[in-house]
Amino acid sequence: QVQLVETGGGLVQAGGSLRLSCAVSGRTFRRTVMGWFRQAPGKEREFVAAVTTLTGTLYNPDSVKGRFTVSRDNAKNTLYLQMNSLKSEDTAVYYCAASRTISSSDSYYRTPRNYDYWGQGTQVTVSS
Questions:
Q1: I need a surface site. Which of 20, 55, 92, 119 has the fewest CB within 10 A?
Q2: CA end-to-end span of the chain, whole Å?
């Protein structure tokens, strides 16, 4: 059974930083494509970033590129999301997800239904 556990969420003022972590167990981490999504109240789940095995890192350019950095530590089976210059519109529940499929298409990993495993989510609240 694959388990993903997110930590690191919390309340931060606009302009501040947070680092989210996602610990993965039950699967060979280094061969798994990992992604971050977020969901604000009343909105659809939105792609944030991913670390693939073929194309490297992907970001949602409209909302986070240049402010967020995704990375992974294969030795620790952990995925990270460093979030800087946070804005009130970044407020959401953040989820990490794992995909068993290796695809050369970047768009594949931007779609929530293409991920097989999900964490329980961690709340990030940015006060203005």
A1: 55
A2: 40
